[in-house]
Design a protein that fits this description.
It is built from 21 helices and 19 strands. It has 682 residues and is of the alpha+beta class. Bound molecules: adenosine-5'-diphosphate.
Length: 682
């Protein structure tokens, strides 16, 4: 495929704001290669970084090997800016070293990554490196390596979080709280656990409205590329498949009226960068891809239910259809740019600003649904106070536009394909991978600009470039030529001058004000993590739960501690029987959320659920902040040999603090630490 001219100025990018959200710009087409395989969570982090490589630059002047890691950690500990002054003027003047990237685990994204690194004039370590690198690029998951510093392009737990069942659960919690805001995800049931519920709910609606003729789509958990997916008209059809026990799945309402172009169903792949978890930072790539079915669409009927080329938009399936069209243009064929679709819609008078704005909103809300549990994974894998990397991740969002242009979330991919080759049939049945210019252009831009946003030396470089008003060589405003060697940027005031403008657009915190009210579960997750107790744990023990109840003053004459224990046991047992992860005993975050909802309903009976929950979160945070203040005062007064306020004796002060939080006296640094944010998650 070749790029058409003018692709760079995508339709959506020319659009301004609607409902307060900028329209992003749309970009280029890609050939969609299969996703990276999904990965099961490996316990712990395997393997140390590999020994040096042939192309490695000599190590920076500082370290003897043994000191290398420690020094690096110190640098990392100063924040990712690395731009703080060392106090030594010579350091300020020394040209910054190139950013180092370990690409030894990049797998199928290696091609795009190599080009990105070259364009940035950074230093690649294709076989790993004895010394730590600034950035580690993993093809599949966080657990690809054992890393103690720098940045990794994967979050721990992301692969688990975006599996069909986990995503459906996370979104459902949000749908319970904010049904209107989360109606972009089709109603879903988890199989086999909710099979009876599914049957009962469908029967109920059908009884109320006999004209309702729904279709459902069954998707195996952890599947990809359309693998194992099928459509049904009635819940009883599921039993015929007979594989539920061996393969958990999600059954979902099928969107029967998708927007069609050229009579074909299509979906959209958008790239989203989760730059940081806490504080939350989200970017969206300005263009995406549209993947087309290869058989004209008809609403589902018993006759066409099994026509995969009509109903499933997966590239990996449709490539096998005789109707698949490889096109040289970005606006025709079976894979097109999303911008070309928007252009076409715009020419028909569609308000594409609203389409983009709705998509941005969908993306932010989905990430908000995922973050609470991601935080739990994060603190488990990278506990506060232990060395570890910071994380970022590129996600692939698959979105369907309905006929009325409402975007629907189909799924989120933790490892969207970043291949830059394209499969070509040389002769019948003989395929070969050939470079795809379009893939290269789209994916290299996403990877390169992700790296630019994550650049750990940016602050330093910017600082150094500030005194220079003019470039040292060449005309003012002229970027370095392409053949300039790596490192030439050291003397250039703007080392990014040769690069195109960044293709990733920040949407959060930019629109934080509009979406922060949705982050209730996030605040619950903070409470949950605070009471986890044991470092690295992901489940709350009975004592932790009791302490939470006591510290937040939730027990009362109508909720005894015995009732609290029963609540804990009931909910925990049920969740543990449902989830696959049986390694730890205790209460998982979803179980805690359920218990929290129960407590909120009891305490604030008359309010709608989200207000009940918000009130309870406020109350808990209020009591915990009082407690923290008291501990702080207690710490101060004990250091000063004084007494805690409100106590007549030092022992009394200790006792009252103890009674207040159900803990032993906690006037220690570690106690104070645990009451604040545990770690900046990014
Ligand atoms: P996979 O990970 O196997 O690709 P998806 O959830 O992306 O699974 O579903 C595969 C395809 O099925 C989608 O690309 C889309 O075309 C179609 N599809 C999935 N869910 C729905 C739905 N609820 N309504 C309509 N079509 C859907």
């Amino acid at each position: 495929m070749r790029r058409g001219s003018g692709d760079r100025e995508p339709a959506a990018g020319r659009e301004a704001e609607r409902v307060g959200l900028d329209a992003g710009a749309a970009g280029e087409p890609e050939r969609e290669a299969p996703e990276e395989p999904r990965e099961e969570r490996a316990p712990g982090r395997p393997r140390a970084a590999r020994e040096g490589d042939a192309s490695a630059v000599p190590p920076p002047p500082q370290p003897a090997r043994a000191r290398g890691l420690r020094l690096h950690r110190e640098a990392a500990g100063k924040g990712r800016g690395c731009g703080r002054s060392s106090g030594n003027p010579a350091d300020e003047l020394r040209p910054p070293r190139p950013v180092t990237v370990d690409s030894s685990k990049a797998r199928t994204s290696l091609g795009a990554l190599k080009i990105s690194i070259r364009q940035l004039r950074w230093k690649e370590f294709p076989f790993g490196r004895r010394l730590p690198c600034d950035i580690y690029w993993h093809g599949v998951s966080f657990h690809d390596n054992d890393i103690f510093s720098g940045q990794v392009n994967k979050f721990p737990g992301m692969t688990e979080m975006v599996r069909k069942i986990t995503l459906s659960r996370a979104v459902r919690i949000m749908q319970n709280l904010f049904p209107e805001e989360y109606n972009f995800y089709p109603r879903s049931w988890i199989l086999p656990d909710e099979f009876q519920l599914f049957v009962a709910q469908v029967r109920m609606v059908k009884d109320g409205d006999p004209s309702w003729k729904p279709t459902f789509i069954v998707k195996p958990d952890g599947g990809c590329q359309g693998d194992g997916i099928y459509l049904i008209k009635d819940p009883s059809d599921i039993r015929l498949a007979g594989t539920l026990q061996s393969r958990p799945a999600v059954v979902q309402e099928y969107i029967c009226k998708p927007l069609l172009i050229d009579k074909l169903k299509f979906d959209i792949r958008l790239y989203v960068l989760l730059k940081s978890l806490d504080p939350l930072e989200i970017y969206i790539a300005k263009d995406g891809l549209s993947r087309f079915c290869t058989e004209p669409y008809q609403e589902p009927s018993p006759k066409n239910l099994h026509h995969v080329f009509m109903h499933l938009t997966n590239y990996s399936l449709n490539i096998h259809s005789g109707n698949f069209v490889h096109s040289d243009s970005t606006s025709t064929g079976s894979k097109r740019t999303f911008s070309s679709i928007l252009c076409r819609l715009s020419s028909k008078g569609v308000d594409i600003k609203k389409v983009w704005s709705d998509i941005i909103s969908l993306v932010i809300k989905t990430v908000i649904a995922l973050t609470p549990e991601l935080k739990v994974f994060y603190q488990s894998d990278i506990p506060a106070g232990r060395p570890g990397p910071t994380c970022f991740q590129i996600l692939g969002f698959d979105i369907l536009l309905m006929k009325n242009l409402k975007p629907i979330l189909l799924e989120v991919n933790a490892n969207p394909s970043m291949r830059i080759e394209h499969e070509q049939e040389l002769s019948p049945g003989v395929f070969e991978n050939v470079p795809s210019l379009v893939d290269e252009e789209v994916k290299v831009a996403v990877i390169r600009d992700t790296l630019r946003l994550m650049d750990p030396l940016k602050n330093k470089r910017e600082k150094q470039s500030q005194p220079h008003k003019k470039p040292l060589a060449g005309k003012e405003g002229e970027g370095p030529s392409d053949c300039e060697p790596a490192g030439a940027s050291d003397t250039n005031p703007n080392p990014e001058a040769h690069l195109p403008s960044i293709c990733l657009k920040q949407v959060f915190p930019k629109y934080a004000k509009q979406f922060n009210y949705l982050r209730l579960v996030d605040r619950m997750a903070n409470l949950f993590i605070r009471f986890l107790g044991i470092k690295g744990s992901m489940k709350l023990g009975p004592t932790g739960f009791r302490t939470f109840i006591r510290n937040c003053k939730l027990s009362s004459s109508s909720l005894s501690m015995a009732a609290v224990d029963i609540l804990y046991i009931d909910i925990t047992r049920r969740w543990n029987s449902m989830t696959l992860d049986q390694r730890d005993s205790g209460m998982c975050l979803q179980a805690f959320v359920e218990a929290f909802f129960y407590l909120a309903r009891r305490k604030f009976k008359m309010l709608p659920l989200h207000e009940q929950v918000a009130s309870l979160v406020d109350l808990c945070e209020y009591h915990l902040s009082l407690l923290d203040e008291r501990r702080l005062e207690c710490g101060r007064s004990s250091r000063a040999g004084g007494r805690a306020p409100g106590s007549s004796t030092p022992q009394g002060a200790t006792r009252s603090a103890q009674q207040a939080d159900g803990h032993p006296p906690c006037c220690t640094d570690s106690a104070r630490k645990s009451s604040g944010p545990r770690r900046a998650l990014s």
